Structures are given as structure tokens and as C-alpha cells.
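Figure 3 (text version): C-alpha cells given as input.
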């Protein structure tokens, strides 16, 4: 949408996301998304193991290398992923293995420095096993988020007027770290991305228990409060007039 001009001329972009607690300022990581594939050669695992090239082993080597790499990474980075396919039968050496991996950093600039180090871990898997490696970006990288301070102050005031209470700084510092393509939007359009609490603690996002809290009275109130607070913030911006682009 951004690339096709959907935000051209916009004075403000906003969204609100459910969370265990209320947090006004989002600080999402920059992130890249990659599809990783290893191609080897199948063989009978008992009768002819020497004829095989094990693609699943390549992922094992890569994940060990990534695990060791983490000790030397800044605390503001994240490297994580899943193996989505690694063979079809126990008696057949896997000829293909696939996975999806995310690399996160504070900024796109830091991400650009980190990605080659992670790539070498995947290359190590290919080198050690004799597999072929293919790395395919799933999308353009998401940028870090740039919050518009004026709109952020308006949202805070509007949310408090509705009876919302924001989490203390130490809780917010954990809650507001994720990644979103709205980060790219925020680089060219004034934007905010607050989180609205549904009272789910100790359950947090992406847990089954959190999903259960997304239905019920607290969730309905959060939905209404979030919509109203954003609407009032839009009114505040309209009354003030358009600000300079970031």
C-alpha cells in the first residue's frame, strides 16, 4: 500500500494492537523474513546411508551455529525461526528441508550488518553436509518504528480520559518490542502504534491463554476504548492542522 501511494498526502497513520497491558509508545524492531531451503539427496537410511546427502542435518548445523552466534550479538537483536519440513519418512534420508527465519535489530542499518553473520550460519550447514542452500526473502524488510510525539501525547491524554492506565516503564519496555510493516509507513507519514491492554497477565501475546482473553468484557472495552482514543486523536490532529512530515 505504501509503495503504491496509498499513504500519499496522509497527515497521520494510526493503529492499536491488543496486549496484556496498556503501552502508548511502540518501539518495534526492524526485521527481515527469509525462507530457507536445503536440497540434498535421498537414500535408504539403513541400506544405503552413504548414498544420501541429509538436508535435515544441514538445519541442525545451522541452528547450532546460530545458537553460538547469539553470545556475540548485541542484546537488541533477535534471531529465531522454525523448520517447516525436514523429511517424509524415518527410513529415507531427507533430500529437502525448509524453514522460515526472522532476524531483528534496532534499525535497518543494524539489521544490514547482522544479516550476513546469520547467513554464514546457514552456509555452514550447506558446507558441512554438501547440500545446496537457497535463501529467499519473503518480503521487503520492515523498518524500525518512528512515533510522532505530538500524536503520542494526544493519544495518552485521550486514553487516560477514558480511564485507561498505562503500564510502568519496565513493563512497557518488554511489551512494545515486536515488528510491523507499519514501521515502514512511520518513516514517511506521522504515525503511532499504541498497545491496549486486555488484562491478561501473566498470559502474553501469542499464547493460547492470551487468545482466550481476547473474548469477553475486558476485550470488548479495549476494542471500544481503542477506537475512541484513536478517533479523538485524529480530531486533535485535525484541529491542530497537519504537521511536518517526519
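Below: residues designed for each position.
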Amino acid at each position: 500500500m505504501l509503495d503504491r501511494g496509498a499513504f500519499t498526502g496522509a497527515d497521520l497513520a494510526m493503529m492499536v494492537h491488543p496486549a496484556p497491558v496498556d503501552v502508548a509508545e511502540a518501539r518495534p524492531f526492524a526485521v527481515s523474513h527469509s525462507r530457507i531451503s536445503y536440497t540434498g539427496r535421498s537414500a535408504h537410511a539403513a541400506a544405503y546411508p552413504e548414498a544420501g546427502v541429509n538436508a535435515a542435518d544441514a538445519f541442525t548445523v545451522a541452528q547450532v551455529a546460530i545458537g553460538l552466534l547469539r553470545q556475540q550479538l548485541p542484546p537488541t537483536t533477535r534471531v529465531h525461526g522454525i523448520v517447516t519440513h525436514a523429511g517424509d519418512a524415518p527410513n529415507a534420508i531427507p533430500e529437502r528441508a525448509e524453514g522460515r527465519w526472522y532476524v531483528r535489530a534496532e534499525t535497518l542499518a543494524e539489521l544490514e550488518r547482522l544479516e550476513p553473520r546469520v547467513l554464514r550460519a546457514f552456509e555452514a550447514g550447506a558446507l558441512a553436509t554438501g547440500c545446496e542452500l537457497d535463501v529467499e526473502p519473503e518480503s521487503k524488510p520492515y523498518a524500525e518504528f518512528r512515533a510522532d510525539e505530538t500524536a503520542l501525547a494526544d493519544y495518552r491524554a485521550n486514553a487516560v480520559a477514558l480511564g485507561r492506565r498505562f503500564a510502568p516503564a519496565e513493563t512497557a519496555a518488554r511489551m512494545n518490542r515486536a515488528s510491523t510493516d507499519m514501521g515502514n509507513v512511520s518513516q514517511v507519514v506521522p504515525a503511532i502504534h499504541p498497545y491496549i491492554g486486555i488484562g491478561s497477565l501473566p498470559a502474553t501475546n501469542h499464547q493460547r491463554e492470551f487468545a482466550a482473553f481476547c473474548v469477553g468484557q475486558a476485550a470488548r472495552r479495549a476494542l471500544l476504548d481503542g477506537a475512541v482514543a484513536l478517533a479523538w486523536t485524529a480530531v486533535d490532529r485535525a484541529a491542530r492542522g497537519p504537521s511536518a512530515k517526519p
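The mean pLDDT is 92.
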